[in-house]
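agent> Task received from the user: take the single chain below, predict its 3D structure, and emit structure tokens. No templates, no multimer pairing.
agent> Plan: (1) validate residues, (2) run structure prediction, (3) serialize to tokens, (4) report one or two observations.
agent> Step 1 OK, no nonstandard residues flagged.
tool_call: predict_structure(input=
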Amino acid sequence: MKLYYSPGACSQAPHILLHEIGLDHDAARVDLNAKKLEDGSDYLKVNPKGAVPALELDSGEVLTENAIILQYLGDRASWPEVLPPMGDFRRYRVLEMVNFITTELHKRFGFLFNPNATDEMKQLVIADLGKKLDYIDQQLGAGPYLFGKDLKLADPYLFVITGWAEKMLGGLDRWPHLAAFRARMLERPSVRHVLRFEGLLQEEPAV
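)
tool_result: status=success, residues=207
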């Protein structure tokens, strides 16, 4: 399978998950402004929506939408259990959180990335995001992850959101549990690998 990604975008979540569960994959970088791949080909032929992530399967089928791609990968994880099985109520709690992140957090950040958004609109969005992050911070608590000691589908997605919050909301001081969560995620090999791959993490020089 092949993951289409852009550095720092929400495609970082399934990229991290692919490494967590050990599924073989290729990764193709997308220039979201030009809608081009690195070889110059038209990304819109892969995903007419023009967004990342997109996951191209060995069958040739292409999946889009982060929440669905995460669920697809979760259902193919033999270990660890990042998504509980059908019939287990915990499954729906995990998917509930993934959808909350998608609809209540991710989509709101989209306004902040929009160059046409007015300052007034951005301030309204920031205020609303603050309340949503208050809720997540409370739900997360001491964690270490959203559903306790084991990483689930929603955690890599939340990691992306914390990165955006650091840049767009002036940091995570208001949300200490989220700050601690981000620090824990940054210690995971899968996260560090993806950040290095995307050129977003520089290795410290050897002493």
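agent> Step 4: summary for the user.
The CA atoms of residues 143 and 149 lie 7 Å apart.
agent> Done.
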